[in-house]
């Protein structure tokens, strides 16, 4: 197992246990960005409007992949897992938010934050849904969205396929 960097010790202590009846080795996780994924960025000065059509696509991925969500978005700053669940559920999200990635130190990118989370949690498969490519070696698990469009129905089959790919049952870093 790869040791997580020192800054990764900020992994949320509020994380929810894995899905009922699912061992950590079979647990599947969606690392979710929000701006540019569920909240298309149509104007440079306007962020935060969740799009119901994008949420429906996420619901399809969650349902077909049997996955839970770990929020990797900046939306995790200052919010608990419960608050993130409530925000998404209020807009139609039918799945479960089970955690957030740790907030990296200076110079850390999103891929490093996801790798730190994976170093602490065994999963059977995962997909990263984001509008940025800063995923390093984890890029093969990325479904890249167009920021102005967000998550589209055409993204679902690829996300599900990546999610269902075995990850050898252990942390990947």
Question: Which tags fit this structure?
Answer:
173 residues, globular, alpha/beta, 5-stranded parallel β-sheet, disordered N terminus, 25% helix, disordered C terminus
Topology of this protein?
Blueprint: E1 28-32, H1 52-65, E2 67-71, H2 81-90, E3 97-100, H3 110-120, E4 125-130, E5 142-144, H4 156-164
Parallel strand pairs: 1-2, 1-4, 2-3, 4-5
Structural class assignment: alpha/beta
Strand order of the largest sheet: 3-2-1-4-5
Judging from the principal axes of the Cα atoms, what is the shape? globular
What is the radius of gyration computed over CA atoms, rounded to a whole number of angstroms?
15 Å
In percent terms, what proportion of residues is strand? Answer: 5-15%
Number of alpha- plus pi-helical segments: 4
Measured between the Cα atoms of the first and last residue, the distance is 8 Å
Topology, number of strands: 5
Give a structural overview.
This protein is α/β, with parallel strands linked by helices. The chain has one domain. The chain has four helices and five strands. A five-stranded parallel sheet has the order 3-2-1-4-5. Strand 1, helix 1 and strand 2 form a beta-alpha-beta unit. The longest helix is centred in the middle third of the chain and has 14 residues, at 52-65. It is globular, with a radius of gyration of 15 Å.
Give a quick rundown of the structure.
With 173 residues, this protein is of the alpha/beta class. The chain has 4 helices and 5 strands; from the N terminus they run E-H-E-H-E-H-E-E-H. The chain has one domain.
